[in-house]
Design goal:
Length: about 180
């Protein structure tokens, strides 16, 4: 302890730093989450492995609209662990995720975006693994490119899936936007 210092002052300073750090991390997470899509819509689930007394292992298919590009929807299928660990929410989910994105209306960009920007992210284990859907633009071909992958805090996963959506006219007289004009 420094000469003439008070132990309470050092504790308050340390608490203040920890509180400010936690607040900054929470704010950054909220900003990132706000930019990504809302929760996806469950389309259906299909059991793949029967469990007698606990929930079955399943494949679940979800749909979500791109939050920054109107007229594009993505569908992804993820395995969901059953059993006791899956039931209480501590099972680490596998990284096998498929993805298909489609034009479902006139494509309109809401704002500029960075190549590889998050469209959606979801935790796939209690602490370390998350699934992410990211978006890019093939400026040469005017095609939106979506990729889903799963990563871990320590090591990433090479398992991924890619889907592309050509920016095309929708209906009569629709002016086609260039995704290159909307890339930061």
């Amino acid at each position: 302890m420094p000469e003439g210092g008070h132990p309470e002052a050092n504790m308050i300073s340390s608490r203040t730093v920890r509180l400010c750090t936690a607040l900054a991390i929470a704010t950054a997470a909220l900003v990132t989450a706000a930019r990504a899509a809302d929760e996806p819509d469950l389309i259906f689930k299909r059991s793949t492995v029967f469990k007698l007394l606990t929930p079955n292992d399943k494949l679940a298919t979800y749909g979500l609209d791109d939050p920054e590009v109107a007229g594009v929807a993505c569908y992804f299928t993820v395995p969901e662990k059953g059993g006791l660990k899956g039931w209480i929410g501590v099972a680490e989910e596998v990284s096998d995720i498929s993805l298909a994105c489609r034009q479902i209306g006139a494509i309109r960009f809401k704002r500029k975006f960075a190549q590889g920007e998050d469209v959606f992210r979801q935790r796939r284990s209690l602490f370390f693994k998350k699934m992410q859907i990211v978006r890019g633009c093939d400026t040469k071909r005017n095609v939106l490119v979506y990729m889903v992958y799963s990563d871990k805090l320590i090591e990433g996963s090479p398992k991924n899936s890619t889907s592309s959506v050509p920016v095309m006219p929708w209906g009569g007289g629709d002016e086609v936007q260039k995704c290159a004009d909307w890339v930061e």
